[in-house]
Amino acid sequence: xxxxxxxxxxxxxxxxxxxxxxxxxxxxxxxxxxxxxxxxxxxxxxxxxxxxxxxxxxxxxxxxxxxxxxxxxxxxxxxxxxxxxxxxxxxxxxxxxxxxxxxxxxxxxxxxxxxxxxxxxxxxxxxxxxxxxxxxxxxxxxxxxxxxxxxxxxxxxxxxxxxxxxxxxxxxxxxxxxxxxxxxxxxxxxxxxxxxxxxxxxxxxxxxxxxxxxxxxxxxxxxxxxxxxxxxxxxxxxxxxxxxxxxxxxxxxxxxxxxxxxxxxxxxxxxxxxxxxxxxxxxxxxxxxxxxxxxxxxxxxxxxxxxxxxxxxxxxxxxxxxxxxxxxxxxxxxxxxxxxxxxxxxxxxxxxxxxxxxxxxxxxxxxxxxxxxxxxxxxxxxxxxxxxxxxxxxxxxxxxxxxxxxxxxxxxxxxxxxxxxxxxxxxxxxxxxxxxxxxxxxxxxxxxxxxxxxxxxxxxxxxxxxxxxxxxxxxxxxxxxxxxxxxxxxxxxxxxxxxxxxxxxxxxx
Length: 509
Description:
Pathway: Amino-acid biosynthesis; L-methionine biosynthesis via de novo pathway; L-cystathionine from O-succinyl-L-homoserine: step 1/1. Its cofactor is pyridoxal 5'-phosphate. The chain has helices spanning 32-35, 38-43, 47-56, 71-99, 108-118, 122-128, 157-164, 179-192, 203-214, 229-237, 254-263, 284-293, 306-309, 343-356, 362-372, 375-395, 413-419, 435-444, 464-467, 473-478, 495-506; strands spanning 2-5, 11-14, 25-27, 196-200, 220-224, 245-249, 266-272, 297-301, 319-323, 337-341, 399-403, 426-431, 449-450, 460-462, 485-489. It is an alpha/beta fold. It is globular.
């Protein structure tokens, strides 16, 4: 009889040729049934083992089988013990659930409260939230498994009906949810102090889904001049097709905001803080009070801040959006986005998302989960280096102006100090030179990558006049994008190395 080893814990035997047969005997270590409880077997990411176990489960005795028996003997023993195996698996799963708070049976509020009692800081939440307590997948693994599936099965019609009527917690189709993504959403909700979070395929889609779900046809929105250009393009070109009108104000112009609220039936004020690329800061508490007094919602794009530096929901915002591609994931290797806030609002975004698509791949969800475990460490490092870099650049004779909320010279420094715990890792500045001189500077740096995006471990630098606005000189003039403007996203490299690199590049200006 040939013996084939699958893993150090699972061995199966065959009678000839090493091929699997219906008489396959699987040897389980003492804790194997517990490890492969019902939900774990359903969602096991190791497809090879999962298929073998699922195929042979009903043919396998509950305990360790005796070795040396033939195929017929194994089939007979398995048949006589099938009920015992099922009972043992069910009992083991029930015992595991009773020992660990599990979202499948525990009330979400109980899990959230237990998590809050245990995890008191952003550092602990970044590592454990959504995974240490209330994880839907029953597994002994420290990390959350990647569940690669497009659909989910039900034991019978009654279980499906229970699911439809809210008595059975599961999923139905990959577009409507995934256990890996769910863990990520719980982690983000914990960090942002949100009731609910929905993760989607990109930050841009998060903004589109939010606007589509919450701004009615014929509605009116307010936004700011300083923002991500593609967001502005969507609002200018696509929203009017639904009859949605828009007022654009400068970030610090509260009189203009009040005038827009007084003279329009405003559905939503959507703004970044800090903004892109000038890092202007909006007084979230003040603006929330202004909007709510007129029945308008406030959505903050907090991508430049991250939840480590700013929690806009606690200041009165209704919703927070992130491009998770940036600080949240933090490694320049995955694209994603999310919307967090009150459940009644996020649920509307989620319903729209379920219909339209834009699903975050579970492998991307895993990468973002992994990146978030070091979010607090990365952001603290980037905060410190960026502040030192901004101070250095402000004193350099070849720098005309520096934009950074941590500098007293920043027009909203007083606001940033009150609502942020750190000022972020992006420093924008204007080189004391023309378009060509600025190009020479960009082309002379050796450490930062010349690329779009920001917030990752690697430093990135770009000249917005080329990177983002090359196709529109008119818009550069309207929104103050000068030829000598630089946006510098600082990674986690050593400050002295980055400083010395910039010094040598500035000599080329």
